[in-house]
Design goal:
Helix content is 37%, strand content 0%. With 103 residues, it is mainly alpha-helical. The longest helix has 25 residues.
Amino acid sequence: MKPIRTMVAAGALGAATLAGGLLAATVFTGAPAGAASSTSTTATGGTSSPSGSNSSGPPMTPPAGAPGAPTGTFHPNESAAHEATESATREAQENAGQVPTVP
């Protein structure tokens, strides 16, 4: 094979590998895209983050049937051993009926 032809073939192979890697990274990421990934605004003007960590609005939950979507009602752990090691922020979230987002 001539040297020019070899370099063209190597470049084409490299470009195809890079394009395939980018396509795979786009297809196989777990992040939603489009309108489904926008944040909502509450009446107080705050926005909710996808993790639900913003206390100014309601916690956001994944769509029904999505992997990791909560099934049922949240029941806080009220045992004495758990309560002794729990932070005030976590206890407030549990008392509000929210799934805790802090340790």
